[in-house]
Here is the input.
Amino acid sequence: MPLSRFAAILLLVPGLVAAQDPVRPPIDAALDRIHQFNEWTLAQQVELCQVAAPPFKEAARAAEFKRRLEQLELRNARIDSVGNVIAERPGTQGGPRVMLSAHLDTVFPDSIEVTVRREGTRFEGPGIGDDCRGLAVLLAVARTLQESEVRTLGPIIFVGTVGEEGAGNLRGVRHLVDRQSAGRIDNFISVDGTGLSAVHRAVGSHRYRVSIRGPGGHSFGDFGIPNPLHALGRAIAGIAQLTVPVSPRTTFSVGIIEGGTSVNAIAMAGSMDIDLRSEGQAALDTLDARMRHAVAAAVDAEHARWPGTTARLTAELRDIGKRPAATQPDTSAIIRATVAAARALGFVPALTASSTDANYPMSTGIPSVTIDGGGTGGGAHSLGEWYDDGKDGWRGPQWALLLVLTLAGLAG
Here is the structure.
């Protein structure tokens, strides 16, 4: 009798929690079930996407996601003090605790009303892939487990997090790791976006708003005093000349520039938002220091340009978001399980580096991975975002299910 997919994974990844009877667990039936109710999964994806969840205003979508978890009769569905939605499926024998998450928030302001348009297997709407797909995958996994005979040794914690996007600064997952579930997460899985890849390394980021201020004045009458916008331009030019390592991959970008009141005025203030990223924390810290030096040098250069005045500029760097970089061995159990689960379903996932909810738990030493939710997609963070379920989008939820079961362990 051939081994089940689950048993094959246990052979590929020794050291994981073994089932009491790994030869004939009801895994194949559960995987088939996900395929059978694929239209239901897509409906969850669309309906949640049409509930607004702008940055720091995820409450409406959180309430709706909680309601759907309650309908599936998961235990203790609740919204925590920062807005995360949490529900549980108990284990039977105190096995490893597995947290399966997707993020509730989008990058879009509440002025954008989302109506998802469908044509065949293709869906269009802001947030449809990032991360309404992830939320739908969580619901599909939860429904499958609740309707199947599958029982796990360890508990499975389902979470919709807040604050994954932009200035949210991972506040949801930070709260889970540091407070809500501190010391009680054995494995962390995030489902984020579309495709069939896995993020096994965390790209760190430092984001700042750099503001330069001065006395300002009339462009003709007060000519000869330092100009905050000129200093800002010098700073941008200095940053643009920075060199960064190819490995670990390290990048920088000035994304927003603001300032000034009139074409005939020396501005009183100017600011820029800058994003620094790297796969290595040491490289990120070095880039951070060099960026700060470029800003200070720009202010000094602007002062030196106008030696006949005592007017001075001030520069302020305000932290608007930091995500730690982190790595874990490709030979770690969670990565081997991720790859083995994919292979059991007939595909080999690309292993990539990115910035996701997994950054923070990974940086604290918790085995963590982010997997895609299946299908294909594009236009993330734009009004033209799309998701195509294609012929086998259901393999995304199957992958999440098989990975969760591998890490939590099957009960006999």
